[in-house]
Amino acid sequence: MRKLFLLLIMIVFSICVNAQKAENLALTPPMGWNSWNTFGTDINEQLVMQTADAFVELGLKEAGYEYIVLDDGWMAKERDENNNLVPDPKKFPGGIKSIVDYVHSKGLKFGLYECAGNQTCAGYPGSRGFEYQDAKLFAEWGIDFLKYDWCNTENLNAKGAYETMRDALHASKQPIVFSICEWGDNEPWKWAKDIGHLWRVTGDITNCWDCEVGHGNWSSRGIWPIINLRKDLRKFAGPGHWNDLDMMEVGNGMTDSEDRVHFAMWSLLTSPLILGNDLRSMSNETLKTIENKNVIAVNQDVLGIQAYCHLKSLELEIWVKPLANGEWAVAFINMSNDELLLSYDWWKHPINDQLTHKQLEKKYKSYSMYDLYASKNIGLTNKNFESKIKGHDVLLLKLSPQK
Ligand code: GLA
Hints:
By secondary structure, this protein is an alpha/beta fold. It folds into two domains: about 290 residues, Alpha-Beta Barrel (TIM Barrel); about 100 residues, Sandwich (Immunoglobulin-like), CATH 2.60.40.1180. An eight-stranded parallel sheet has the order 9-6-5-4-3-2-1-10. A six-stranded antiparallel sheet has the order 11-12-13-18-15-16, with helices on one face. A two-stranded antiparallel ribbon has the order 7-8. Helix 9 runs parallel beside helix 10 and helix 9 packs parallel to helix 11. The chain starts with a helix and ends with a strand. It binds alpha-D-galactopyranose. Alpha-D-galactopyranose binds next to loops.
C-alpha cells in the first residue's frame, strides 16, 4: 500500500514537472528575424550566416535583436530510416547544428520552425506523432526557439497538441522559447499562457497598410486589419506570454512613414519584434526605423503592458501605453494621406487606463514630451500641443512626469 502511495506521488510529481513551459524566458517581447516573409522556402545556410553577420555589423544585435529564426522549408521531404527529421542536403549541406553553432558564435540565438500536423504548411514532415523525438533532436542541435505551426492538423485539439510539444521541449531540458502559431483560430490567448511564450493572433501578415487578401478559407491582412481585429486582447499579454501580431513587413515595400507607424504599433502593442526583410540589402531609412532604440525601449518596457486606443477619429488615432516609472508612450497617428495639423489639449480627454488603473496625473502639473523617432525634447504638456504629422505617419512621444 505504501509503495502504491509513493508511486502515485511520483506520477503526480512527474506530471507536474512536465506540465511546464521553460520559465523566465521572453520576459520582454522576443526580438529577432524570421526568413518567411521575404524568402519563403528559398532558404539556405549562406542566408542564415549572412543574416547573423548583418545582425552584428549593422548594430541590430546591440539594439536588442537576438533570435534568427529559420521558417518552413529547411527539411528534406522525408524522415530518415529512424524517423529523424533531415535538413535539406542542398540548402543545408553542413546540417542544422553547424549553423546553430555559427549563430551562437556571434552571441545570438537560433530558432527553428515545425508544425503540429502531419505536414508543415509547405508540405514537409510535421511533428505529429514524433513530438518527443523531434524535440530531442532540436535540443541536440542547440535551438533556442521553436515556432510551431498549425497546418494539416485535422482532428487535433489545439490546446492538447501544443501541450504535447511543450512537454516534449520541457523533457529535452533546454530553455526553448515556444512560439505558438495557430493563427488565433482557437483563441490561444485564453489557454496558452502556461504553454507558450507567444502566440500568433491572426493568419499571415501581408505587406500593406490596410488590405485584406482572401485565400479561400483564410485571409492575409495588412497592418491595420491585424491591429483592428485583435486590439482587444491586451489583458492577455504580459511578461513571458505575448500576443504575436506576426513577423514585421518593415522594409518590404510600404512607404518609410508607413513603416514607422508599423514599427511603432508593434512596439506599443508589445508584439514580438521579428524582422521579416532582407537585412543584407535594406535602405538606411529602414535600418534607422528598426534600430531606433527609443522605440524599441517602448516595446521592451519591463511592465509589459500592451497599448490601447485612447481616441479615434477618421484622420487621427491616439494610442497610449503605460510604461515603468509613471512614464507613458503616446502615439498620434495620421490615418489620412494628407498632412494633419494637430492641436491637442492633454487634459480635455484625460488619459485613464481602465485595465491597469494608471492615469496621466494632473498632480505632476505637466509631463515633459520627448519625440522618440526624432530623439528630441519638444516641451511640456501644460499647454495646448500643436504639431504637424505627414500622411500615414506617426508622432510617437514619451511623457515623463515632472516633479
Ligand atoms: C504559416 C505561418 C507562416 C509561415 C508559413 C510557412 O502560414 O502562419 O508564418 O510559417 O506557414 O509555411
